Amino acid sequence: MLYGSSLRAQPAADTLRLQPVAVTAGRLAVYAAGTKVQQMDSAALARYASGNLGDLLANESTVHVKSYGLGSLATTSFRGGSANHTAILWNGIPVGSPMNGQTDLALLPVGAVDAIRVQSGGGTALWGSGALGGAVLLDNVARFGHGLQVDGGASFGSFGQGYRHVRSELSMSRWSTGITLFGASARNDFPFASGSADAPVEQRQANAAFNQYGLLLEQHLRLGVADRLSLHYWHQRTDRQVPPTLAQPASTAYQLDGGDRLVAEWRHSRNRWSSSLRGAWLGEALAWHSAEGDPAALSRSETLVAEGEMRWRPGGPHTLDLGLNFTRSAARSDGYAEGASQGRQALFALYRFQPRKSRLTGTAALRQEWQAGLLVPFTASLGAEYRATPWATLKAQAARLYRLPTFNDLYWLPGGDPALRPEQGYSGDAGVAFQHRWAAVELRGEITWFNRLVDNWIIWLPGPQWWSPSNIMQVWSRGGESGARIAWKLGRTTLISGFGTSYVVSTNQQAKSLFDESVGKQLIYVPMYSGHANIGVQRTRMSFTLSCTYSGYRYTSTDNAEFLPPYWLVNAHASWKVVNGKRWQADCFARAENLLAEQYQVVLNRPMPLLSFRAGVNIHFHRPNDTDNNTP
């Protein structure tokens, strides 16, 4: 992350006013050697600025996203794991629900954040419970000394889709204030074909409209040369109808989702020492109605987080980080006999070894948590990177993992089991990253092999009277990922092409019952083969990108007897900068999704849209600072 501030030099005619830059690195950049980290570039963020995090990950990463439809629930399956095995962090704070351990990606608009990174592999030593498959980091970046910036845009598309946003930011040399307003809506009445392939029946999606709005407030303040204060507040509300499945004649259900997130942070930096204090309050509410006028099924949760870190750079190749974390979660739901609460404390130590002229970088992370005064599984990770050649880096990482049961696992009535044990296991990664440039051609890519074994995997199974969770699965996930990007610059034209592939075998190794036929079979809704590719051209004010995604067979029964067929999706995106002034810029864009009108389902009996279109305009205004103003 880069932070700039103004510097006033001597008033000579040949003197330039420069903005000094302070470079700070977070936990992921410093202590995650050996892991695969994908930084979403600005072009990808621009293409999906009017979409949600699920759209971005499904089309631009190797993460499989299990989507129930446009605007509906979307969760991750990271390297064959469940939705509970991905940590989603906003400015360093996990935002997963303490009730079910998941984060609905459809409720996270891409345009609300500045940077998105995807870390693959076990990360519980860095982030705590739940990061068995990987982590997605969403960050809002502080900018100082940039003056006044206003960004706004609107888009409209098929099935009544609409998205609006405006962001205003005023940043001086010592302070920055920003506000973002956004809204999205859709009738979502897309056509689809049901019935058999020989006798298809055309229908329209019903009871699937949604409406979403939110705001994001940011305040950053620099105190002297060593201290910085930051405050973030995210408010969001979503009203979603719940469409029927193909097995239902109709649905009148709808749900209201609400979220408020507040994060405050103080950072102090010196030459050898730096420290930070971070506090957060997260509140979520969900009201589910089976029909208009029916009483709601209510669920509410709150999470308080306090975290402190101290980093020491004694000189030479060593960097050491010590930290404490306190997390308190509470929830109330119609499914609980009474309110549920949980307190956790964690002590973690992080170490980095990087000799100045060596090709080797090594990191280690240790974490011990307590819940209700009892130790939970100790976790650790070791990682290393070795630059074998100027263009190739070898990577390796090993980690011990764990995940605590959620409130629903423990307390849901009927069925919850307070005696559930934490999931725990081990994972390992090995790979090579490469980057090379030949004159006007630049190539970069990465190939990774991974292996993970998780014991005490929690699964809900039907019983004599109701469903109940049990620690009776052992899941072995292994496979490989690859990705590459090549850019070729020809004068004012740049050709860009890239791809990403994923091969995942995720099988149950332990029988759940005497006649269990799931042993050695692929987990449901985990495609063995998936991938994406794109090719694009950029020239002065214009750009065009053609992309496609592939998802292989997804089994819908544990014995792999039933499945959903593979599908290809082809999308196109074009943009044109119609205004390119000194202070004003305006872009028009158009996007077509599912160009081949592929009829597919990501989840059984949940139809997806056929061909759809979207078009819009984005406007940017920037007025740099003429004079310094250090008064907030």
Strand content: over 45%
Any idea of the CATH class?
Mainly Beta
Tally of helical runs? 5
Query: Architecture, CATH level 2?
Result: Beta Barrel
Number of domain units: 1
Task: Give your account of this protein's structure.
This protein has 632 residues and is mainly beta. It has one domain (2-146, 153-623): Maltoporin, Chain A (Beta Barrel), CATH 2.40.170. Helices cover 4% and strands 58% of the residues. It has five helices and 36 strands. The strands form six sheets. The protein has a 22-stranded antiparallel β-barrel. A five-stranded mixed β-sheet has the order 3-8-9-6-7, with no helix packed on it. A hairpin with a 2-residue loop joins β30 (529-539) and β31 (542-551). The chain starts with a strand and ends in a 9-residue tail after the last strand.
